[in-house]
Amino acid sequence: MTYTLDILGYVNPAHEAATDDADVATAPTGAPAGVAFADAPASAPAAPVSAPASAPALPLITATEPEATFARWYRDSPIGDIYLTADENALTGVWFDTHQKYWEPKPEDILNEKIPVLQQTAEWLDIYFEGRDPGALPPINLYRVTPFRRMVCEEMCKIPFGAVTSYGAIAHALEARTGKPKMSARAVGGGVGHNPVSIVIPCHRVVGANKSLTGYGGGIQRKITLLELEGWNMAHFTVPTKGTAL
Fold it and tell me: Residue 111: beta bridge partners?
């Protein structure tokens, strides 16, 4: 079976039973070019895939230095405690308590579980860790990242629950968006790796062109767990032993 991976077109493992007689899954017309995981002859017949009619709506995304940062712990996770940060109106960070690159708790963070966006995010995570699509994302403030990495984060917000895409597909989407040719997949990888809002901005849904899980700021085992939670069979992917494969 061929798995076409990109922002808008994908194969969700939940639909495999419905495509037993087909060997190729195709993306919707007009979707950006993706990566084909070819496990079948090129002559295999094409078949439709049950996929969302469009990418999820983008959350409200801003980039403003907050006057104060509020925080709370989320402890009902199968992958360890999670530290949430926000300003008064938008989520600014979702961090794992261990093995997280580019982050450490700040002493000036104000612990306050009553901030509405922190409550909203905790409820979103409750639904997510039940293995269900939580729907709309909370508002997000990406003041920590560069404009380019903010665009990468915006593209990741378009990847539906239960889907995956490639670094190259995001690069193609950015080429179309900016009009710049030959966007680097490696530069996209830098943006994915510096995502400050783990899980909510789903960097775990980005994989390499050769089926490699490449890496994950929170540790590769967490990436595996999150993909399995969304219905993926890890037999479709490889775990790198060294380096990355974008």
Answer: 71
User: With contact defined as beta carbons under 8 Å apart, do 66 and 143 qualify?
Assistant: yes
DSSP state of 84: E
| pLDDT tens figures, 42-81 | 332 222 223 333 567 778 899 999 999 999 999 999 999 9
Q: What is the CA radius of gyration of the chain?
A: 18
pLDDT in tens, 132-171: 999 999 999 999 899 999 999 999 999 999 999 999 999 9
**Per the residue annotation, which of 118, 200, 203, 224 is the catalytic one?**
203
Please answer whether residues 40 and 1 qualify as being in contact, where contact means their C-beta atoms are separated by less than 8 angstroms.
yes
Interhelix angle for 147-156 vs 167-178, to 10°?
A: 120
Place of tokens 């767990």: 225
Residue 203 is a catalytic residue: yes
80-131: pLDDT as tens digits: 999 999 999 999 999 987 656 666 667 778 999 899 999 999 999 999 999 9
Quick one: tokens of 75?
């402890």
Structural domains in the chain? 61-141 (3.30.160.70)
Dihedral pair phi/psi, residue 242, rounded to 5°: -160, 135
Residue 20, H or E segment: none
